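User: My collaborator and I are trying to settle a disagreement about how two of our proteins should look. Neither of us wants to argue from intuition anymore, so we agreed to look at predicted structures for both before our next call. Could you fold the first one, then the second, and keep them clearly separated?

Assistant: That sounds like a sensible way to settle it. I'll keep them separate. The first protein:
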Amino acid sequence: MSSNDSKKRKAAFDKKCAANKKTAKRLRTRMDNKTKLAYFKECFGAKDFKECDRLLEGNQNRMIDYLSEAFISRVIETPDIDNWGWLFEHSIDANARFRAVNAKSWTMLMQAAEVGDLNLCELVLDNCPSTINERNHGNDKWTALMYAARGNHPELCKLLVEKGANIHIESTTDRTALDIARGNDAVDVVAYFESLHLSKKRRLIR
């Protein structure tokens, strides 16, 4: 089913639902799983979370199907605190499910760090603290702190360090977050890292 087909179906469904709540309940019941999944994704994309809740009502097993790693990996591509917040709120096992990665092999925390969104990073860390030092699955093995350093996001780097990010971890090219910041002229992050006197307590972690 194409995206346009799903949108048309959702529009028609919403029109009928607005006219009669009993009709809405009956329509949801009659949808096959494939149609319901497509409709769920359209509702989620439109931030119609009330309708998402209705689709999942009384059936937590359906959540496992709907929030597949493939779906979550697509969500990661567009950091949005409303969408991510709803997913965390409804996840059966946040730490397990939100370790999913996007096409670049980045976790949700890495993506939030890359764009420099402090609120999104806090949201992820509150729900999935175990991902803070996780490396990407690509060739460079970067952590979220490294992405934040490259983007010159000093407040975000400070948050990550305070939450337990290891500043001594090295990428596969033997670079720490400080090295990456220096290589990308991220002067504010360099200043922050240097204030921690890293050279005095540096140890190699690969």
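The second protein, kept apart from the first:
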Amino acid sequence: MTTRTLTRLSIFPLAGALLFPRMHLPLHIFEPRYRALVSDALARDRLIAMIQPRAAGDRPPLYTMGCVGHVSQVEALDDGRYNVVLEGRARFRIVRELEVKTPFRQIEAELLVDEDCGTLALAERAGLEAESRRFAMAQGYAVDWESVSRLDDEALVNGIAQIAPFDAASKQALLEADSLSDRTELIVQMLQFFGRHDGEERVTLQ
């Protein structure tokens, strides 16, 4: 079940840096406007909304969906920069951008809190693990499969979605998937696409 709540969020548009619920994203914050964003978040609710821009530029257009992260770890450096780790809390959908005087952008958003993500069917879970093993073997990745087998379905699916070497548009599609089952199906398709190549050249999904 997904609950929907309108809220105000401060956003960090960053291409290729997608965050998924329950996953962790380390960031090095050096731009003055985003240092201000981190300072503001630490003084309030420790929330930062990650979202992908659709293009380059100072105020690029944005994708409509992102993920809110909670600052779970922070290191304030002497020169004003920050090292932070965000823990994904919930996806959000942009309703409108707000007119603000802060150096960072703010939005009104619909917060999508998945109270019960559900579980995968046994065949879905087995298919995802099998395709992941084939992909990892083909790419030469070392994976602790015993630890992987102990993950719950949401942690497994979102973990693969966040760390797999898919291009930004493909990961955005994974973030926007309506259900855990839909996200699993997309991941399997993407892993199979990559698996059809011999690894001699990098392939992106567009």
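Some points you might bring to the call about the second protein. Strands lie at 2-13, 24-29, 47-51, 65-76, 82-97, 106-114. The longest helix spans residues 122-139.
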